[in-house]
Design brief:
Layout: H1 3-16, E1 19-23, E2 25-26, E3 33-34, E4 49-54, E5 63-65, E6 70-72, E7 80-84, E8 97-99, H2 114-130, E9 132-136, E10 139-143, H3 145-150
Antiparallel strand pairs: 1-3, 1-4, 2-6, 4-7, 5-6, 7-8, 9-10
Helix pairs in contact: 1-2
Length: 157
Amino acid sequence: MTERDERDFLRFLRSTADVQLLALDSPSPDSIWLDDFPPRRSGDALSRRFALWNKAFAWQPEVQRRSHDTGVSNTLHAPVIEYLRHPFSTPAQDVGRLYWSRGLPADAGNGGDPEFARWWQQVEDWVKQHAHHRTGEGAAMHYLPWAWWRYGKWVRG
């Protein structure tokens, strides 16, 4: 997603639920809670990982100070969608991802919350409806419209 795709995506999410955006890595505790995605900063690990919390699902984020930053420490078993920005401008080992921890409490097939699974399906359907798809290197890649225009159709990123 580009910044424009992120704005469209967040607008969609907020049309489905009361969604709180959280920075999973942040310079200070007061900058964990976000209204919008922050601007991308090349090479800045503190502007890459986010949680999208549908507040209809009970959870309390645990903010933890670390040696060089602050983060949310309890997303592994949380009813959140995690988003890792793709670093279009710099080479990186991590690629962009949008996911939730299947097999954990939110997984309806394993005794979790079927309502969260339904909400995730709605989100996944929206992404697939709006994305351009490319298969390569063993995985399907989904580019939202502006990312496709800037990077995908030219095989960059």
